[in-house]
Amino acid sequence: MESYKKGFRLKNNTQKSVIMLLLSKGVYRNDSRVMREIEALSRQDFSITLITLSNTTKYTAETLKNGAKVISIPTIANRISGNAIFWFIKYIFWIVRIVKSVKHFSFKIVHANDLNTLLPAWILSRLHRSSLIYDSHELFLEQYHLNPVVKIIWNIIESLLIKRADSVFAENVKCSQYLMRRYHLEKVVPLYNMQWYRKYTPQNKFRQLFNISDECKIILYQGAIRPARGLEKLLIIAKEFPMYCIVVLGHGDYRTNLEDQSKKLKLTNFYTMSAVPKNQLHEYTCSADLGIFLLENVDLNYYYATSNKLFEYLGAGLPVVFSDFPEMRRFIKRYNTGFVVNENNISEIKDKVHRILENPKLWNIMHNNALNAIRTDLNWEKESKKLIDVYNKMVDLTNFRKNV
Predict the structure, then answer these.
(1) What ranges in 114-272 are assigned the alpha helix state H?
(2) 160-179 tens-digit pLDDT
(3) CATH pick for 2-194+381-403 out of 3.40.1280.10, 2.40.50.100, 3.40.50.300, 3.40.50.2000
(4) Amino acid 104: pLDDT
(5) Does pTM surpass 0.85?
(6) Which CATH architecture has domain 205-378?
């Protein structure tokens, strides 16, 4: 990481140059969608500059292995938080700094990652006569925990600016349909956050780490450890099925709560561990026998979600048990890779878990279906073609505008 200096210039391919915005403080590498988009675009000779929020008081710049630049820009306080008014002041200050920082850059496309970067992205696209892409990672306004005042601000911004975007991406088909209905848009491109294809190789990470016997089937949850993800039900499964081992892999404040509950229940087959680096995750996922995610229907954003876990589990050949939400059901039913369940019906959950793990023939069918689906259809190599196609059209659109 090097200090960002005034007058910094990008030596890039100005014919295919891109500014991406991401409001993520110092953890941009954890955003798998953004990292995959940058990698796919870099392979097509696009010159990417990612602008994100600095976790220090300094401007910093770095270059990724694929040649993409990352510029981290601080705001007036350590982080964007506090009451709504103070938050909005810091947000506007961050936007002003972005505009000043890239005023000498030359770029064809501005890419807004999620609603919280749409306003600065629109400003940059107008100032530089560039094409604007709005990449909606989730249904931002449908999040149950959103502050009511902040929600009003975001609603105004999205309502005013989404129609000014030259192209819009959404997390999946359901979210695309939602945005088209809400804002009367003609087209929103569904772009699933699938994995780069990796060959499946069986592993024994969990058995070695926790000294789990070969006879004990491993049920894996991986991801954020927080409420509304059905993690308490995994304690019930562990209690009632001592022949299965539960592994919860990830980070989050709720981990301590889970561990305390496990101790109270005197469980010896329930394990938690911290998140592992992204480049190691696949090996750990390949060490389980079944993937599970019992997301709760607390808001429309959750109900319409397509979890990254689904593609991670399938890429490791794991049969799955997921909440019966539209996008989860779409893939699990189509490729016959597991079961969808009522996330509140513990009897149904136990039945489906038991049915998969106690039926070797069924497990093998679902295992092979998962691997075949990932190899032939559900991979980023194939999905990213939609991204590249839109980007090429946006370059042509920008060239046309600047020649008029």
Answers:
(1) 118-127, 148-161, 173-183, 205-210, 231-240, 254-264
(2) 999 999 999 999 999 999 99
(3) 3.40.50.2000
(4) 80
(5) yes
(6) 3-Layer(aba) Sandwich (3.40)
